[in-house]
């Protein structure tokens, strides 16, 4: 079963610069194990714990635009032709002082 995986820029060092890679697996967890056989270290950036049983807190995974957290997490089922998107959560901002508008 072939699944297309979209890889964000920050993780492309693990995929040799490729933004789209192919993997296989019945579940997201299986897919990540498969990807790690060809892209060593990628799985470790996506899951946490000694057994890799849960997603890193700041990683969002989507199957065909649906968040896997609502589909069963790492146990979410995959089918041939699915598209998996990896998105790191981004936070932050200017962090500076914002001047209030002058009264007119």
From TrEMBL:
Q: Name one Pfam family in it.
A: ThiS
* Source organism, top-level taxon: Bacteria
Cited PANTHER family? SULFUR CARRIER PROTEIN CYSO, SULFUR CARRIER PROTEIN SLR0821-RELATED
**Which NCBIfam families does the UniProt record give?**
moaD_arch
The identity of this protein, by name, is MoaD family protein
* Species for this entry: Frankia umida
């Amino acid at each position: 079963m072939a699944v297309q995986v979209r890889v964000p820029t920050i993780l492309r060092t693990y995929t040799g610069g490729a933004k789209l890679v192919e993997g296989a697996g019945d579940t997201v967890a299986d897919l990540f194990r498969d990807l790690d056989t060809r892209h060593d270290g990628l799985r470790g950036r996506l899951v946490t714990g000694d057994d890799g049983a849960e997603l890193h807190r700041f990683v969002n995974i989507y199957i065909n635009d649906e968040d896997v957290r609502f589909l069963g997490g790492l146990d979410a089922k995959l089918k041939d032709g699915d598209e998996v998107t990896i998105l790191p959560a981004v936070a932050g901002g200017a962090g500076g002082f914002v001047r209030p508008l002058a009264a007119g």
